[in-house]
Amino acid sequence: MTRLTFSRRQSLAVIGGAAATVAMPAVVRAQSTEISVHYSMPAIFKEAQDAVMAAFVIKHPEVKATYFNPTPTYEDGAQLLLRNAATNSMPDISFQGLNRLRMFAERGIAQDLAPLLAKDGDPAKLGYSKALLGLGFHAKVQCGLAFATSNPISYYNMDLLKKAGITDAGSPTSWDKVIENSKRIKALGDGNEGMFFRWPGDDWMFSSLLYGHGGRMLNEAETDVAFNGPEGLAALKLLDRMVKEGGMPNYAGTADLQAFAAGKLGQMFRTTAQVRSISNSVGTNFQLQTSLMPVIDAQKGRLPTGGAGGMITTTDPRKQEAAWKFLKFATSAEGTTLMTKNTGYVPCNQLAIDDPSYLADFYKQNPLFQAATRQVPLMVPWYAFPGQNSVRVTQVMVDNLARIAEQKATPEQVLADMATEVRKLIPRQG
Amino acid sequence: MSDASPAIALGSATSAHMRPRVLFPDIAAGWFLTLPAILAYVLMILLPLLGVLLLAFTDYEFGSKSFNWIGLENFAAMTADRTFLASIRNTVVYCLFVVPLSIGLALLLAILIEAGARGRTFFRAVFFLPVVSLTVAMATAWQYLLHPSIGPVNVVLRGLGLGAPNWLGSSDWVLISLGIIGVWDNVGFNLVLFLAGLTTIPRDLYAAAEIDGAKGAWSRFTLVTWPLLGPTLLFVIVITMTRSVRVFDTVQTLTQGGSNHASEVLLRTIYQEGFHYFKFGYSAAITLVFLAIVLAIMLVQTRLIDRRVHYG
Amino acid sequence: MKDLPRLAVLGMAAMIMLVPYVWMLAVSVKPQDEVFSASLTLLPEKWALIENYGKVLRTIPVLTFVMNGLIVCFGILFFQLLFAVPAAYALAKLNFRGREVLFGFVMLGLLVPYQTTALPLYLGFHQAGLLNSYTALIAPFTCSVFAIFMLRQFFKALPDDLIAAARIDGMGEFSIVWRVILPNAWPAMTAFAIFSVVAHWNDLFWPLIVIQKGDLYTPAMGILAFRSVESGDDYGVLMAAATLVAAPLVFAFLFAQRRFIEGVTMSGLKG
């Protein structure tokens, strides 16, 4: 007869095993997963990212996230990722310009977030509306989540406008008015400039003029350019008028920001993303006001959505999970609130937008940030050119715009050249 | 000064009169001692050079798994490439601006410094400062100075009633601005070389010239200084040219080739095409053009030196 | 005084030369709102020395950049001399078959600027998994044909009796290099050292290509990166950063002027 008793050794083993099972979560927690995060434009995003990271670390101590060195512009960020993809040293998460997510989806670098989203239930409940998800949906894949969205707004130096005798300043409703004001400010002399429309850097601001007229970049099938129609010509003619009549200078780099902060630039048109940093630079130098972009076409006019979206590149399941935690947090109501307060971008989580406890007070106390939110109904996605040469396309467009800014070519010439050159760079279908 | 004084190094291409009487023959030692250098040379210079030569005839893109041999297609593409043509033109213009100005100024300043006894060390140090200063840092300082509306330079110009150009933004002015910074950068280096050359000119020659009737400073210069500075001058020209043709830091920092490629230069185009657009094949072809230009400069120098040696 | 016009001209030229430095320092101690509003005044109304320099030291690892600069420059120099001294000696004093061929390659190397070999070198380091490393920053420059050339010139001028005596004493060639030649090569070596350190401290092209990790940034890259962070917001802080990163070499120069100048003239005059 066998005695059904455990030997001492066996019982110890059982107890030990049980204890181990109970202790397991603690052990697992002690093993943190490391992920690397990359973003661009530290001038705009550094504080926001730092704030998000600080809050994330408290909530998820089991994930150790470190930053890659941030790249100066979205273009550099795209190049970094392409280069590192070739050398297998990609950051696990990368915040790319919204118009670049498509390229990474096409190349299989951006991982599909749909399965990760599905695990957490209904995305709408987490604040990811259809529109927001749409910003990161390309090549039939949910390749990214919008982290920060922006649209172009107007910045005004109210003191300088007043000095030029403009009393109804602050929200001119047309470009004619803006150009008129610019003429008067420039007449003040002493190095004062009337306006600057930030066309350099990439195609974003040009697209705001193009969309404002109701135009589009490429045709529906993406086989040919569509910006060389009447809308495109009107957009270029407007740019031309800014220089010819408004006396717009050809500022390079960040010279416009510096001139504006020093009180030498009356009207500035650029992304809402820099509201926080611009108001810091301006300080008490003068009274700053932001407003909507002048309306061109009340019916068909639209504005491009700028900003960044986070994508996950790692295929390692454990890292993916950790990365997802970070991305989810960054785009959660809490994360997007931190981001909004530290930049000027529009929040990317419906909960944060709807729920007064997150941002209502903030907007009440910071009217400068409101302009962008009032333009949300007009936002359309930032156009992503298809194919291998998408980065070169934006460069080609900027180069051509420079010719107008320097009055070296007419809008008609530039439009024709731009169309020819871009046509050469987009993939030929069929 | 010791045997290795600049004068001797200057004067002789080969120290013929110093050839030792006995050369110890030792093949083993010879090769053994040069081996590390040879290995480094082969790995880091020779093989990569051959690599560039090969890449230039392919369409290789970084990150792609395969490539094709396309013969001279890259070079054909260059002739139609607006950016590349701008690049060559701008590099030439930049050199034509920087080389004569930085050499002329350096020579003038060197003569002035040599002409008196006071302040030599001080002035030499001041003019040499840009050479040891981090180019990227100083370019940033220049960017502040040259800000079109609020930089000190334009504020002064406006105060004087002169125009206030858009130094770094305008495609008409950007090369001039970069050229000014380039001259500022190079003057000190050339100055020091000229100083060394000037000190080797024996004083008695000036005395002799004066006795022979050379009265003013100008005739002293043309009769004594200029001819004897010949080798130094030639050398300085070549050095400055090769330094100028390699301009990169200021462009990359300040203008990134803008506006509309008005400040695009060869090295930057090589960098952009290769490491921004990943067109390694094309970038290698441009590199070969760049190398050809550098070799051409060196070739001209050798020819001119030969002429001087035989007829001068 | 007869000297007055000369000093006046030189003085004016010197002032123009120093303009960027003066303004760099002046702006680095100005608070943000004063940087552009009164760009002609040198002294700030409100001193922001501590704020600006403090912010720089807090936000960017200036010390790391300087350390990297030192590691890379002296690493390169070490290997350059290690390879060049024996090679130059062999080419100068030993007679062996193939010597002229080797020297021919040295001359060839002098014609080739290092930027021309960047693309394949990058591919090579990539294949070897050595991108983003000190190795990638140092290795390409270890064979300095310039050092070989210059040292060869110098060694040729050294008296043969020195070497003959050492041989009689039974020294092998290897020991001769390190025990007899090296101590006598001091002036040429320091001259080259200075030339090399200045060139590599300033280098932007190669580090820009091979380094993407912030903790390996060299001084030039560090400033470039910081420019994009500051992005024209606070020029005072940017100037403070520029000052801090440019300072080491400038101080070294002011401290050892003669050596620097000698370095340039000696290394420069190859005739």
Helix content of chain A: 40-55%
Q: Based on CA inertia axes, which overall geometry of chain C fits?
A: globular
Largest sheet of chain C at a glance? none
Quick one: biggest sheet of chain A? 6 strands, mixed
For the termini of chain C, the CA-CA separation is 39 Å
What is the number of helices of chain C? 15
Structural category of chain A? alpha/beta
Unreliably modeled segments of chain A: 1-6, 23-29
* Strand count of chain C: 1
Taking Cα atoms only, what radius of gyration of chain C do you get, to the nearest Å?
A: 23 Å
Mean pLDDT of chain C: 86
List how many beta strands of chain A DSSP finds: 12
Radius of gyration of chain A (Å): 25 Å
Order of helices and strands of chain C: HHHHEHHHHHHHHHHH
Helix/sheet category of chain C: mainly alpha
| Estimated share of beta-strand residues of chain C | under 5%
Describe the protein's architecture and organization:
The complex is a heterotrimer of chains A (430), B (312) and C (271). Chain A is of the alpha/beta class. Chain A is built from 19 helices and twelve strands. In chain A, helix 18 (390-405) packs antiparallel against helix 19 (411-425). The longest helix of chain A has 23 residues, at 8-30. Residues 1-6 and 23-29 of chain A have low confidence and may be disordered. Chain B is mainly alpha-helical and 312 residues long. Chain B contains 14 helices and one strand, in the order H-E-H-H-H-H-H-H-H-H-H-H-H-H-H. In chain B, helix 8 (174-199) runs antiparallel to helix 11 and helix 11 (230-245) packs antiparallel against helix 14 (280-311). The longest helix of chain B is centred in the first third of the chain and has 34 residues, at 82-115. By secondary structure, chain C is mainly α. Chain C is globular. The model of chain C has no long low-confidence stretch (mean pLDDT 86). At the B-C interface, helix 1, strand 1, helix 2, helix 4 and helix 5 of B face helix 1, helix 4, strand 1, helix 5 and helix 6 of C. Strand 1 (24-25) of chain B pairs parallel with strand 1 of chain C, so a sheet runs across the interface.
